[in-house]
Specification:
Elements (H helix, E strand, L loop, with lengths): L9 H28 L6 H17 L4 H24 L7 H23 L4 E2 L9 E4 L2 E4 H23 L1 H11 L1 H6 L4 H26 L2 E2 L5 H14 L4 H21 L8 H15 L17
Helix pairs in contact: 1-5, 1-6, 1-8, 1-9, 1-10, 2-3, 2-4, 2-8, 3-8, 5-6, 5-8, 6-8, 9-10, 9-11
């Protein structure tokens, strides 16, 4: 191991926190749907991809930044609701395995549509490029997106906690996550709860799409696919049976990816996924229920 591997600066730490914050939001979006449907939505990354293409579309036509962001939210929310109506709702009575395969099919269908419409070379979103510029804090140059991502993630998570704990629909979602059958017997409407979870998940996907587009302006059909796989690993690492533990797992895998990505020399960066997944396997061998779950908590249902 060379000394370059240990070259960790304050700027690298800031980028790692920013990426961890983005991954935490992705983990929450995946965890919300899992909580009420017991479904791992593999197509979540393609929702983010669609939002990124919307931003690139607006940037290509010279639209104002806020217009491109609104288009991003509109596209992602519309696709989220369509996914619920066309896929989740008709298959609600099927086994988790069937629904998981359906999300795989949706993911690759959306990827194929993007490939057909936009081509393999993708589009470039330049309207938010200014957030990639550094700002000097003390003696350290920190990219603006690292600060924005951390603040936006913190505000979003606080608002989500308030919604889940202070509103009727939030309490219904929490009840459904604990025991959906009993919650329905007590008057909780399934369509309303699932629709709310899917909608909130879509809002978070749109936020992530905006921030990932800043970090990677080139939008291709496989945009956010690698990030989604890493976040799913992080969610399992943290523990899927609780939203908090899943969120911490997403942050942990994002922080580790950002830290190692900035510290590793260029000729070793291709080994980053191997390091991360090896660490995930090692942790799960020691704590199969998840790194952030308490001892004795019920393990998550297997698909």
């Amino acid at each position: 191991m060379t000394t370059a591997v240990l070259n960790i600066t304050w700027a690298t730490l800031a980028d790692a926190v920013g990426l961890g914050s983005i991954y935490a939001l992705m983990a929450v979006g995946i965890g919300l749907v899992f909580g009420v449907l017991r479904l791992v939505n593999f197509a979540y990354g393609q929702l983010i991809m669609a939002g990124a293409y919307a931003i690139a579309y607006g940037s290509e036509r010279g639209w104002p930044v806020w217009t491109s962001i609104l288009l991003c939210f509109g596209v992602v929310l519309a696709l989220s609701l369509a996914m619920d109506l066309v896929v989740f709702r008709p298959l609600r009575g099927q086994t988790p395995a069937v629904m998981l395969v359906a999300t795989f099919a949706v993911a690759f269908l959306m990827q194929a549509i993007a490939l057909r419409w936009f081509g393999p070379l993708g589009k470039i979103a330049t309207s938010l490029a200014s957030l990639n510029r550094p700002v000097t804090i003390g003696d350290t140059d920190v990219r603006k997106i690292a600060i924005v991502a951390t603040v936006v993630a913190a505000v979003s998570l606080v608002l989500l906690v308030l919604l889940l704990s202070r509103t009727r629909v939030g309490l219904e979602m929490r009840a459904a996550a604990l025991d959906f059958s009993t919650a329905r017997l007590l008057g909780v409407r399934a369509n309303r709860v699932i629709g709310s979870a899917v909608l909130l998940s879509g809002v978070l996907a749109a936020i992530v799409a905006v921030m990932l587009t800043v970090q990677n302006p080139l939008v291709t059909p496989d945009f956010a696919l690698r990030d989604t796989i890493l976040v799913l690993a992080g969610v399992v690492l943290g523990g899927m049976n609780r939203l908090v533990s899943a969120t911490l797992g997403g942050f942990a895998i994002g922080f580790a990816a950002g830290l190692l990505g900035g510290a590793l020399p260029t000729d070793q960066s291709q080994y980053l996924p191997s390091f991360l997944f090896a660490a995930v396997i090692l942790v799960l061998l020691i704590r199969p229920g998840g790194l952030f779950t308490r001892e004795g908590q019920r393990a998550v249902e297997r698909v």
